[in-house]
């Protein structure tokens, strides 16, 4: 008799479902700033007082900047930027990562050299940063370090912050162990695992003292 308490195996989505889930993830990231832009425009349409007008314009400016940063990040992290054999500048990846993640609560220390790496390796790095950010929901620091050098470089990200924790089921999705089926919430770490496999790597997520470490090796 099977153990009733054993978790169900991961159910891999087919290609169409994977594309749909990734699109849902991108839309989720964009709904908030785009909605704020709409709210600001509605305030302007109401012929507001000068102070309300300035507030609305400031909201629109900040939200448009946030939406642009998230779009650029998602295009590289989840999209098909460049050709299948393209290489991407780590300096550009750093700029996109800072624009998407640094928000006054979370900051990045980037210890990677500026060089060109294969596209999937850079996509993996950006997705590892998203995973690491989820471990410090109240903000903190992400330190990005290289493992090895050159085109075979992999990455180690150290997340530190108040109440740093392992998000539920993320480790299982990254490792391919038993866990929940991939859904719109879990698709990003699942996709991170697919990227790691394409690079011949494995991503692990584990606590180390008061920090959480995300490693691709």
TrEMBL record:
<dbReference type="InterPro" id="IPR036890">
    <property type="entry name" value="HATPase_C_sf"/>
</dbReference>
<feature type="domain" description="Histidine phosphotransferase ChpT C-terminal">
    <location>
        <begin position="91"/>
        <end position="210"/>
    </location>
</feature>
<protein>
    <submittedName>
        <fullName>Histidine phosphotransferase</fullName>
    </submittedName>
</protein>
<dbReference type="Pfam" id="PF10090">
    <property type="entry name" value="HPTransfase"/>
</dbReference>
<dbReference type="InterPro" id="IPR018762">
    <property type="entry name" value="ChpT_C"/>
</dbReference>
